Amino acid sequence: MSLPYYLRLLCLCFATFFVMHAGCWLVIRSLVPAVVRIAKTMRPRLSGRLLFGLRMAPVAGSLFLVIGFCVPSYVWLEPDIASERVGPACLLAAALGATVWAASLLRGLAAFLRTERYMGQCRRKSPGNAVVQDAAEVLLVNDRAAVMAVAGVLHPRLIVSQAVIDTLTPEQKEAAFRHEAAHRISRDNLKKFLFLLAPDILPFVSGLSNLERGWTKFTEWAADDHAVDGNQQRALALASALVKVAKLGVIPAPSYLLSSLVDDDRDLETRVDRLLREPAYAGKPLAPVAAFARNAALVITGVAATMLLWPGSLSGVHQLLEHLVQ
Amino acid sequence: MDGVSVEDSGNDRASAQRLHLGRLEFDVMEIVWKFGVSNVRDVVGRLERTLAYTTVMTTLDRLYKKGFLERAMTDRAFLYAARLSREEWDRRRAREMMAGFLAGPRESRHMLLSCLVDAVGSHDAMLLDELEKKIQRRREQLAEKDR
User: B81: domain CATH number?
Assistant: First the structure.
């Protein structure tokens, strides 16, 4: 099939992404059991970062190769002729690459809209103006259900139902607010959103869900540690708050992009046991903007260094692309 | 416990029978699951009750023929190892039991589901009560330490 210049570039980008991503995905998939075992021996905050990094590694690595090498090598070295033939294997890989991206973008968009709709409903249920606690907007919802969660991706807000406020003592409320603040500071909902946007090896094949489940567990533990920060009384207050909220009845989260105080009671016993043992100190939270800037700088430096140290890298990549396109 | 059985139901009869363990068979399997590869003498020594060597040997042979164990000959004695883990056995039994209920009439399906919901609900309530007691005990311990 003959395709014009820029359509061929798009096709190559998707095909390269699909091939690289599938390779990385399979390697990471084989490492999951060992990494989860290692993560259990680390501090929860570090474990969460490790699992998050590993979950995002296939998509980040593949995007790095496509944006850093494929696109520049094609634009600089491919002659701008009217059209050229693209082989069926390349077309198939490109179609699969485009499909996995479309599926994950739709998944992310659907979750985002569901969360926005839920927050809209909460705003309507809220009797008055939102109050501000620790620089975060808190929506008090007139609801008998047990709701205490950070919702939203870009501007996360804490949503608390009247039932939870009525049930918890001031100390328990403070500990619970600190727990939710940890989720907000760590931008856990944004990370969940990135999980949704990160494509699977094939559309709707989720082989890295163990990493996501592990990450969810460790971020809850890390938020507990942040809330407690080595204070035994606060640990007891948070443990009591968890049990009291669970007793009110845990309702399934209306969206994946919510970080609830008690998500389900599968991990509740472990969390309470952790809090009753020697309470852990809060780790230093990672500022997401600084982390993003640091990673972006690393990527740019990596591309620049490769091109400087190996000037033939782009022509090498271009030759590989020529093979792929055939 | 008179044996860990799975009720037969239609097409699942054969597989359900394969998963059935008599009391002695279950005790022997528990030892192999717990201690790993064992010969007859090991199992006899680890059983809580005193049983004849030949009884245990026959039981191990029966478990081998039922597919629960695999064996290898070393030094004129068979070494037995479990072919499926305890978790896998539990999972298969649960699956067979569920399949049996779900293949039955609508009433038995509804009964199973409502029993499950009740059981999960009461388990949750008990777990939360237990956690509350734990917290209370810890609070008392700390108060005593402060005094």
Answer: 1.10.10.10
In a domain, B94, yes or no: no
Cβ–Cβ of A243/B138 closer than 8 Å? no
In a domain, B134, yes or no: yes
Q: Which residues form the domain of B62?
A: 10-86
pLDDT in tens, A108-146: 999 999 999 988 888 887 776 556 556 567 888 887 778
Q: Are residues B76 and B112 in the same domain?
A: no
Q: How large is the ipTM? A: 0.71
Number of domains chain B contains:
2
Both B80 and B146 in a single domain?
Answer: no
Report which of A63, A54, A61, A62 is spatially closest to residue A30, judged by C-alpha positions.
A54
Residue A243 touches chain B, beta carbons under 8 Å: yes
d(CA A176, CA A146) in angstroms, rounded, equals 13
- Name every chain A residue with its beta carbon within 8 A of the beta carbon of B124: 246, 265
Q: What is the pTM of this model?
A: 0.70
Check whether residue B118 and residue B79 sit in a common domain.
no
User: Chain A residues with CB inside 8 Å of B141's CB?
Assistant: none
Q: What is the pLDDT of residues B82-115, one digit of tens each?
A: 988 888 888 888 888 777 777 777 777 777 777 7
Residue A276: which of B124, B128, B138 has the nearest Cβ? B138
Q: Is A249 left (phi over 0), alpha (psi -120 to 50) or beta?
A: left
Query: CB B131 to CB A269 under 8 A?
Result: yes
**Residues in chain A with pLDDT < 70?**
82-83, 128-136, 264-266, 282-289, 325-326
Between CA A194 and CA A199, with CA A197 as vertex, the angle to 5 degrees is 120
Q: Are B12 and B103 in contact (CB under 8 A)?
A: yes
In angstroms, the separation between the Cα of residue B26 and the nearest Cα of chain A is: 29
